[in-house]
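dumping this here before i forget
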Amino acid sequence: MSTLQLATSCSPPLSSSSSSTSPSHSNPSLSVGNNFIKFHHFRNISISAKHAAAKNRSLRHPITFRINCSAEAAAADGSEETVKEKSVSVILLAGGKGKRMGASMPKQYIPLLGQPIALYSFYTFSKMREVKEIIVVCDPSYTDIFEDSKDDIHVDLKFALPGKERQDSVYSGLEAIDSNSELVCIHDSARPLVLTEDVEKVLKDGRRIGAAVLGVPAKATIKEANSESFVVKTLDRKMLWEMQTPQVIKPELLKKGFEYVNREGLEVTDDVSIVEHLKHPVYITQGSYTNIKVTTPDDLLLAERILNPDT
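structure:
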């Protein structure tokens, strides 16, 4: 879990809504017929990515859903940035190996209710008016999963090769973006449940500040320990946030950040950390606890339950 400790002078993250109560959404039942797939013995998964994609092609329309959001937005200050239509380049990171899942394919391509995990956020971004293009960073052997969905989207689709580390994959995607893009929106494809409303909020904050990231207040008690595993101190939970994606950064700022970390030989664990090294402010946009990252079999079961609570 990535956490960021904030100085006590920081004001709370702002919502794009004037209300402090999150909207209530209905949860229609999700029916996918024979395409519903559950894994009870994850170590014996042998389904191939291409086979999963073939199953998905039997669904003529992408699976869509609404989630009841449990996170409450903080009070807004009345300011709001407008993100232009077709001004955002999405970098969808889909090159991970996903070894913790114990499956025979990367976690982002395992079917979730009949549809590869990576396609959920892919379709979410593709329907947003702000998005001009999606650059999928993935192994070439999996590009057909996204190419087979081209008829269902109305944005440009590009591909980039993944790198050894996360920052290398982000840089690869950054090199492929449209030169006229005003914002880069970086997202982990293993987070299928990101809400359109949350993406819209973080895009507005990214345009206003230059760099913004979705996050949720930490629930667990976090302790700092020394190299011998003895507690040094207990951190103030009220000042700690768990980072999520998307992480939104202006292209020129991200490029300057990469120049700096590459020159200094630095390694970073998330995208806004690149900008932090420039001493540029990074804004935390309050997101939703349902925006989980699917990395283990338990995460997959939780995602199924969130999508289809009646099962």
